[in-house]
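Each lists chain and fold; for instance:
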Amino acid sequence: MPAMFRGSMTALITPMHEDGSVDEAAFAKFVQWQIDEGTDGVIPVGTTGESPTLSHEEHRRVIDIAIEVAGGKVPVIAGTGSNNTREAISLTHHAKEAGADAALVVTPYYNKPTQDGLYAHYAAIASAVDIPIIIYNIPGRSVIDMSVATMARLAQDFDTIIGVKDASNDLARPLATRLAIGPDFAQLSGEDATIGAFLAQGGHGCISVSSNVAPKLCAQLHDSWQQKDWDSFERARDTLMPIHGAMFCQSSPAPAKFGAHLLGLSGETVRLPLVSATTETKAIVTAAMKSAGLI
């Protein structure tokens, strides 16, 4: 199962109309475009998909659309995390019933659980729903950081806990995790700009924001890595670097949505408390996309 989860995987934006409602047609088109461009997997309703401000009904509908469009051509990892364990179980149940290949479950934010609390949270979800689970460890947003020891304990106790999206930006972490858990535990970076080093330290792929606007380039980077074509890898890595910076020059996903807008694939609207791309952000994103030959 973990072999499914490698390469370039996109943390999908959720296109919206100007009134803030979800643009289902644009989202379906966007998922199909990602697949056509070579993306290895899609992740609906993660952070980039604005999961904090989607209703439960919208959340489930976006997952349903992604699964329907993907049609088994690429894996769908549904975002189902919450700082409320019962809510996370409910969302994960839906992902399982809808046909998702795995659930991406973020570490609980705001309430700051201990390592024992983190273990209990994921143990409860894994016990309640039989679906592969990828832990989403993002200390910068969740405040807490799951230790390698806690992750290893979960992976040992639950066969369905099969990987991590690591957004710690700690490049010692993937090697420590590999040694603690083993090479088959799927390690997916949540930091586009350090993906080369992450792969070299034992990682398997990336759940990417940049691939919202540059899916083909991101896929080429990972294909080159797997084929040990270092010249092609370096070209893709260097070309993508301005994109990585541009995608986070303002709170995500405003830059990514503007980039997708430039490609004719999404509106620019984000939901409050986020705001759409500023004039400065638009200039940065436009320049980066031009430098990469995307527009």
In short: The chain has one domain: 2-240. The beta strands are 7-11, 41-43, 77-79, 102-106, 133-137, 161-166, 186-189, 205-208. DSSP finds twelve helices and eight strands in the chain.
